[in-house]
Amino acid sequence: MSYFSFDDILASQERLPLKTLASVTGCAFLAPSISQHAHSDDEDDNGEGVTNPSSDSSRAPDDLRAGVKMELPFWMTLSLLRAKVAIDVGVPPIFTLERRPILRADPVSLNLPKVGPKHFYRVGAKLLRFKHSHLGQGDDHLGSVLVDMIMKRFRYILDSSQHCQMNASGKETDILDVIEKELFQVGKQSRKQIEDWLFRRTHKMDMADLVYKNNRKRKAHEI
């Protein structure tokens, strides 16, 4: 994660589905409702707080039991993996291997903010750090699909930025990811700069201060 990039920080907030494969010490706060429910299941039905003999007596109340399914932000999930916590990490639905044909079929018409996270490409790039089956192989690998998408959609971004009204906004960028919107704005600005140069709307060149002072001195000397 880039410390100075707000977009990268926001992309790191994307929540990922995961499942604990073993009891995690001191992490019950990550899923308080599930932990509270599990603790109540360990008590006897008479309500007197008698521990059920079949429960795991070695697990402390603040431990997160195995088999818990929840969603955590990317940055927290990555921290758990670095701490070698036994978890099985999933991906957002649009990045699953089953949805890969949708991304490959007609990427130009995809409304990325609707089908996936707002920071689509940044989140996809972050998922490449994980080793799981949803990454795919060969042409279906997530990295290859993301590169193919941005290459095919770039032509649409270029054409839209060069032919839209300068004060227009909204419909041209509704289907674009945050990175694509930045490219769109760069294209519009480049078009404006070219038009200003062609129609001589750019600023006129001024005489440098040093040259101006030298000219004044020379004229004064001639007088």
From TrEMBL:
List the GO cellular component terms.
GINS complex
Q: Positions of the region Disordered?
A: 37-62
Q: Which CDD domains does the protein's record reference?
A: GINS_A_psf3 (cd11713), GINS_B_Psf3 (cd21693)
Which family does the UniProt entry place this protein in? Belongs to the GINS3/PSF3 family.
Q: What does this protein do?
A: Required for correct functioning of the GINS complex, a complex that plays an essential role in the initiation of DNA replication, and progression of DNA replication forks. GINS complex is a core component of CDC45-MCM-GINS (CMG) helicase, the molecular machine that unwinds template DNA during replication, and around which the replisome is built.
Question: Quick one: signal sequence residues?
Answer: none
The entry's keywords = DNA replication, Nucleus
Composition bias, kind Polar residues: at what positions?
49-58
Species name: Tigriopus californicus
Question: Where does the record place it?
Answer: Nucleus
> Mostly located where?
nucleus
Q: Name one GO biological process term.
A: mitotic DNA replication initiation
GINS subunit domain location, by residue?
Answer: 104-198
Q: The organism sits in which domain of life?
A: Eukaryota
- What name is this protein filed under? DNA replication complex GINS protein PSF3
**How is the subunit organization of this protein annotated in UniProt?**
Component of the GINS complex.
